[in-house]
Write a structure and sequence with these properties.
With about 300 residues, this protein is of the alpha/beta class. It folds into two domains: about 80 residues, Orthogonal Bundle (Arc Repressor Mutant, subunit A), CATH 1.10.10; about 190 residues, D-Maltodextrin-Binding Protein, domain 2. It is about 45% helix and about 25% strand. Strands 3, 4, 5, 6, 7, 8, 9, 10, 11 and 12 form a ten-stranded mixed β-sheet that branches. A two-stranded antiparallel ribbon has the order 1-2.
Length: about 300
């Protein structure tokens, strides 16, 4: 059986117009072409769909039963074509992105607002997670993208640089080091430090850079979320070593933020995506707009 879409369209048009001539005008075909298409459909189905008389054309019982099925098939096809067109033109679609908590709160919302204003039919879902979870969500296919730090050890992920920030020390206002204009990494050796745990990409970047300088930090407390680290500093448990992304939060809690130099170490922030998965048109547009937007790490 080789039923074609042209045959189904011709059958529906004839059934609705009740004349081959009217159906031909509607379809923009010749009457003989429409008649041939209907006859081919009857042969393919092995059914007579119309009773033909000199001045009358009437659906047979078989034709009356086939008509709603043919209409549904064509409606479903039109829906598929319409949906694919909307997806292609960003009339609809979905984008999902995972970002480390601070980037999710301070970096992504304005960009998502801008993207959604340009493409109101596209729904963007943001997952705010711990830094080391970002790459895992991308790898598992749970999100289209990740925004955060990558340790560079995941060969199944691709990354595009977005922005960077530098490492800072967060101190209670009464701490002796809070009076200094700037700190050196050597000042923090042997000092109780609060920072992320082993395996955290930000910590891995920092430890690698410090190892080249022959410096090792001692972490008295290791916690995953920057908010917790800042809270522990405020509670007097030590000095937080984070990036400039926490500056607003730390200063809002009355803490002191100091740059750490000699050397200045920067944390690179990237857009992470799976190297072997294709992106939807909406996700491609989101990626391109994000990469073209100058981002300032909060």
């Amino acid at each position: 059986m080789n039923v074609t879409l042209r045959q189904l369209r011709a059958f529906i048009a004839v059934a609705e117009a009740e004349r081959f001539t009217r159906a031909a005008d509607k379809l923009g075909l010749s009457q003989s072409s429409v008649s041939t298409l209907v006859r081919e459909l009857e042969i393919n189905l092995g059914l007579r769909l119309f009773d033909r008389h000199t001045r009358m054309l009437k659906l047979t019982l078989a034709g009356a039963e086939i008509l709603p099925l043919a209409r549904k098939a064509m409606a479903d096809l039109d829906s598929v074509i319409g949906s694919s067109s909307q997806l292609k033109t960003l009339g609809r679609g979905r984008v999902s992105v995972a970002a480390a908590t601070l980037q999710a709160a301070l970096l992504m919302p304005r960009f998502i607002h801008r993207f959604c204003a340009a493409h109101p039919g596209v729904k963007v879902t943001l997952f705010d997670v711990a830094q080391d979870e970002v790459a895992e969500l991308v790898r598992g296919g749970e999100v289209d993208f990740g925004v955060g730090t990558d340790a560079g050890q995941r060969h199944d992920l691709a990354m595009r640089p977005l922005t960077s920030d530098s490492f800072i020390a967060v101190l209670p206002p009464g701490h002796p080091m809070a009076r200094r204009r700037e700190l050196a990494w050597s000042d923090l050796v042997g000092v109780p430090i609060i920072g992320p745990p082993p395996g955290n990409p930000v910590r891995e970047q920092l430890d690698f850079a410090l190892a080249r300088e022959g410096i090792t930090l001692t972490r008295s407390y290791e916690v995953a979320l920057p908010l917790t680290i800042v809270g522990m500093v405020e509670g007097g448990l030590g000095i937080g070593v984070l990036t400039t992304a926490v500056t607003k939060l730390a200063e809002a809690l009355g803490l002191v933020v100091k740059k750490i130099g000699r050397p200045v170490i920067r944390r690179e922030m990237s857009l992470l995506f799976h190297a072997d998965r294709s992106l939807s048109p909406a996700a491609q547009n989101f990626r391109d707009m994000l990469l073209a937007t100058p981002l300032v790490s909060a």
